[in-house]
């Protein structure tokens, strides 16, 4: 039987460059956050099981707020259920800083409260 890893959390922080804008208004596509979820899931599997694991499925994905070029985002993964070979993981993508072009070309602010942009639940499998 594997060890219980419930509650183990990994967070990655990343600046989103303007070259990643995909839509008008400097919007970034939803796949950007899902890619980050894959990255935090990989580190989570390495941390808990000594293997990169495989992402098996998403049970739920919710796009709650826009993500824009110039944002700094945090992707967080937390194990909520440990099976013999599978882990159920809750994911959150939060915007923690945002560009503020009205103040200047390179102006940005740290948000008082992060904006929850994307949430998901997924399953990863480890050998």
Automatic annotation (TrEMBL):
Keyword Iron-sulfur part of the UniProt annotation: no
InterPro entries given in the database record: HOTDOG_ACOT, HotDog_dom_sf, Thioestr_dom
A Pfam family annotated for this UniProt entry: 4HBT
Keyword rRNA-binding included in the entry's annotation: no
Domain HotDog ACOT-type: 5-127
Taxonomic superkingdom: Bacteria
Regions crossing the membrane: none
PROSITE patterns reported for this sequence: HOTDOG_ACOT
Keywords for the protein's UniProt record, in alphabetical order: Hydrolase
Protein name: Hotdog domain-containing protein
